[in-house]
Amino acid sequence: MTEKFSRGLEGVIAAESALTYIDGQKGILAYVGIPIEELAEHATFEETVFLLLHQRLPTRSELQKLSEELADQRPLPAPVAAILKVLPRQASPMSLLRTAISVLGHFDPQADDTSPQALQAKAIKLIAQMATLTAAIGRLRQNQETIPPHPTLSHSANFLYMLTGKEPADFAARVFDVALILQADHEFPASTFASLVVASTLTDTYSAISAALGALKGPLHGGASEQVVQMILEIGEPAKAEQYIKEKLARHERIMGFGHRVYKTYDPRARILKKYSQKLAEQTKDTRLFEIEQIVEKTVIDALGSRGIFPNVDFYSGTVCYYLGIEPALLTPIFAVSRIAGWMAHMIEYVADNRLFRPTTRYVGPPLGHYIPIDKRA
Ligand code: ACO
Question: Using an 8 Å Cβ cutoff, are 98 and 41 in contact?
């Protein structure tokens, strides 16, 4: 076998998958062959979940069944809810979510079962519970009581209900649903790969998803959206945006929400979210943040577009959620509320034809030598 070295595994094909197609040069993204623009226009998150888990669109009755199963799995086991309450409320929401998912595994008798049926059942459970846990973490952060799930609302409307205590307006629920559809899968980012590395040992599913959450938390991955909102708020007014970005670039700082390992053009997800960010800004009559974003986007593209650096999904997902009244600290957990669908779909696909991940290193240490007794060391 010829050995090839690629830093960060860039350009390495590590698995075959029928789930997500990306053309990073042309800005194309499709789930199971369906362009993301069409899913964002016509599908629901529940339909997208079915598409990813079964690699085809559901019939009406299959969709109904999946929606009911998700609703059934929404309530947290009482001990998990109780543990969440004793954890420090101001800890990183992603760390709290990772801990909670790990605890959840202790209450699932199928945790270690890697059969296709068990993985499908755990996918539904985890998709439902990731939303309930994230909403609960959001409430506890604000020292508010958690709100039990609503049994009949859609996945997105129920999430917003559990977070705010109010049934959301149809448009708000739809925008949130689109945001979840757009982030549901993205081929092999660090979080998905991390979960599969762990799952490929045939350990329990909760260990693999905890690893994915740990990877997603990082600012070079899902952690960027929170930092985007913080940056836009720090800029404060449109007149300051261009100078702020130019100074950051002069200091060779990275602008969060720009650049991507795969996309060397405009991220198609960012294009869709930009449209919704604008609509929400107009609806809320608070266009200031959107205006700042426009100037930030133009300044970065003018400076770095020729090097393939354009807005990524995190650039507009932050302000979309901000306009929906969601605090920036919850943005990365919300990414997980969506991406759990992709993580589980990849796990189901990969484990069905499992091969333990075990790459190798290029050794650059000293040549073979001998052990030196401690009193003979210099
Ligand atoms: N701002 C400024 N410069 C950038 C940015 C950015 N956002 N992104 C890349 N660059 C520059 C780098 O400084 C580097 O320049 P150099 O060659 O002069 O050193 C060059 O572009 C290539 O950068 P790499 O880090 O090698 O590119 P990579 O493919 O690894 O980058 C990454 C991908 C990590 C996402 C990067 O673009 C980045 O750090 N972006 C900001 C964080 C971010 O938005 N993350 C979210 C990604 S999307 C997601 O995970 C959902």
Answer: no
Q: Which helix (H) or strand (E) holds 28?
A: strand 28-31
Give the rounded distance of the alpha carbon of 59 from its chain centre. 27
Collapsing DSSP to helix, strand or coil, 311 comes out as: strand
Is there an atom of ligand 1 within 6 Å of 220 CB? yes
pLDDT of residue 1: 63
Candidate list 177, 260, 267, 346, residue with the active-site label: 260
Ligand 1 neighbour 314 (Cβ under 6 A) = yes
If you count them, how many residues does the chain have? 378
**260 annotated active-site:** yes
Residue-wise pLDDT for 309-349, tens only, equals 999 999 999 889 999 999 999 999 999 999 999 999 999 99
pTM: 0.94
CA dist 334 and 340 (Å) reads: 10
Joined together, the tokens standing for residue 149 give 């799930």
Contact 272, 178 (CB under 8 A): yes
| Helices 268-284 + 170-182 axis angle, to 10 | 160
Protein residue with its CA nearest to atom 4 in ligand 1: 254
Cα 93 to ligand 1 centre (Å):
24
